[in-house]
Design goal:
alpha/beta; Alpha-Beta Plaits; 10 helices; Diguanylate_Cyclase; diguanylate cyclase activity
């Protein structure tokens, strides 16, 4: 009965082809070296030769061979010392080393293995034995190449996956239209600042800004124009805010600015700068239609009476409602930091 062995997996593609095996042969006997070179030659191998240990060391550092076949006793640098040096050097420590020796006494074999040899062959050797030992070492080298290649692929995938995760996380925390941090991002920032504020006894304020008559802009000029206004207002707020302020899109035409280390007066002054910057900018709504946009702002500063960030935001939102109610294009904080005015002029 004939049995058919199932295919173990896909055949190796061109991209998966393993590296050509580089073999370094070292012997001070020219005839032995020539014999080794001819016997080792093959399409999948690159053969290097050296007549002494010192030259072999230079070639090993330059070419980083996969396999080294070295005689034990050589001038300038013997095989044992060559083996020790290669094992202690980072870029050559993984070379597979076969030691050629004219003696198979136990003490010498133990010395060779202690120096870092992986295998040994007693001289004079037969081609069949040498080829068998080389084939055994080559299988191990090929396995190591495969493992390194698989590790590199896994590391590449892991890097790409981490980059994709960072991109997704950034998308989840960023407003698509304006590029500002979104509501979720702002809440996380606010919670962290409240924790730091309690620890270091610092001030904390937030500014809630809303574009005045935004629905009218959409109805008159279209939603594309409305998106343009949202993006430009976002850009102005981000440009005029301080480096440690976080400008975020709260939703719709509302923006929340989280002001770290800021008391009521400091955030009030910032809010007026933001309001004036938006008011002064000329918007191009459509071809031939230009005009100005204003924002109303409410301010809240953290109070020991607040339980959490929701109450701080609610206070800012209430002040924003009053700014809208009293005519828009103004800043409201309760109580105001200085004199009680609704719309100070520059």
């Amino acid at each position: 009965m004939n049995y058919r062995i199932a295919d173990a997996g896909p055949t190796e593609t061109k991209e998966e082809k393993l590296d050509k095996l580089t073999i370094l042969a070292v012997d001070d006997d020219p005839l032995t070296l020539l014999y080794l070179k001819k016997m080792l030659a093959g399409d999948s191998r690159q053969i290097l030769t050296a007549s002494n240990g010192k030259k072999a060391l230079e070639l090993a550092f330059d070419h980083r061979p996969h396999l080294l076949i070295t005689d034990w006793r050589m001038p300038k640098l013997n095989g044992i010392d060559l083996c020790r040096i290669l094992r202690k050097t980072r870029k050559t420590q993984h070379v597979y080393i076969i030691m050629l020796t004219g003696c198979e006494a136990d003490d010498e074999l133990v010395e060779a293995f202690n120096a870092g040899a992986d295998d040994y062959i007693v001289k004079p050797f037969t081609p069949k034995v040498l080829q068998a030992r080389i084939s055994s070492g080559e299988r191990l080298i090929r396995y190591q190449q495969t493992i390194r290649r698989d590790r590199d692929i896994i590391e590449q995938y892991a890097t790409e996956l981490a980059a994709a995760n960072r991109k997704l996380q950034n998308m989840a925390m960023t407003d698509f239209l304006t590029g500002l941090p979104n509501r979720r991002n702002a809440l996380i920032r606010l919670k962290n600042l409240i924790a730091e504020m309690d620890r270091y006894e610092e001030s904390l304020s937030c500014i809630m800004a809303d574009i005045d008559h935004f629905k009218k802009i959409n109805d008159t000029y279209g939603h594309d124009c409305g998106d343009m206004v949202l993006k430009k207002v976002a850009s102005i707020l981000e440009e005029k805010a301080r480096s440690y302020d976080m400008v975020s899109r709260w939703g719709g035409e509302e923006f929340l600015i989280v002001c770290a280390r800021s008391n009521r007066l400091e955030s009030f002054q910032l809010a007026h700068r933001l309001r004036l910057a938006v008011e002064k900018h000329e918007f191009k709504f459509t071809e031939g239609h230009r005009g100005h946009v204003t924002i109303s702002i409410g301010i809240a500063t953290w109070s020991p009476d607040f339980v959490n960030e929701d109450e701080l935001i609610k206070e800012a939102d209430n002040c924003l409602y009053l700014a809208k109610k009293h005519g828009r294009n103004r800043v409201i904080a309760i109580p105001p930091p200085a004199t009680d005015f609704l719309r100070p002029r520059p």
